[in-house]
């Protein structure tokens, strides 16, 4: 094969989870050009990736995108998204794709009936299993995220002095995020300098926590790009994160991660891949997981998964710095 097209439109963390497949394709077919299709806002995630020849941005018009891609003459298409949009693109390209298995039925069964039939392995390894016909295999090197040239940062420029811990305080859905009172408890009990990163949605939490703990907390929410946040994580002692895109980027950087689990479950296969991590989870309840991806409210109204989770593993880790 001389040209291979890989499709993954979104989102940030899910794209990072496809990077071992891209690398494996290049290792198996070193002469091939590996092309990637993704939404325009995620195209920069592939910047600096040595295994990717070209990134094609989807800007809302599949017909136009397909017309452009047909001219490339791809020998194979790998559908790493497997949704209606990716199906339609493959149809427009006249290609029968190699596809991942998302185990959607098994995930829903775990949520609704608490019956776990999911393979006891990471999502990435499930991807490899479903793409056996491509004769690709995991090299055991984990995820990839390459900080683009010139976008590494110096912590001193952000007022960070000495050793520090990163807390990526956001996630896509509310039920995956530590409640504000528990955030206060975390800041109050943790030992050492705590640097908060997040987007504009997280900014109000960051501002309040910085106001409450001015000598301990540095709030960088909505102040750093993804690349700059990654650079700061790379230089941190360890990373605290929810089930989120920042967790996967931290895993790609081979950082030690303390993962706070709420509505979702590690058995879905989304835990940090090929890096050291500790799950911080409330094991005293039987209502989780309540969602395959998280939601904006607790179905039972109590949110005990994160309201009553013990933060002791995080505090203990901070005491070793």
TrEMBL record:
CDD domains membership: GT9_LPS_heptosyltransferase
One cellular component term from this protein's GO annotations in UniProt: cytosol
Keywords recorded for this protein, A-Z: Glycosyltransferase, Transferase
BP term (GO), one: lipopolysaccharide core region biosynthetic process
A Pfam family per the record: Glyco_transf_9
InterPro entries on file: Glyco_trans_9 (IPR002201), LPS_LOS_Heptosyltrfase (IPR051199)
A GO molecular function held by the record: ADP-heptose-lipopolysaccharide heptosyltransferase activity
Tagged with keyword S-adenosyl-L-methionine: no
PANTHER family: LIPOPOLYSACCHARIDE CORE BIOSYNTHESIS PROTEIN, TETRAACYLDISACCHARIDE 4'-KINASE-RELATED
Name the record gives this protein: Glycosyltransferase family 9 protein
Species of origin: Aquirufa nivalisilvae
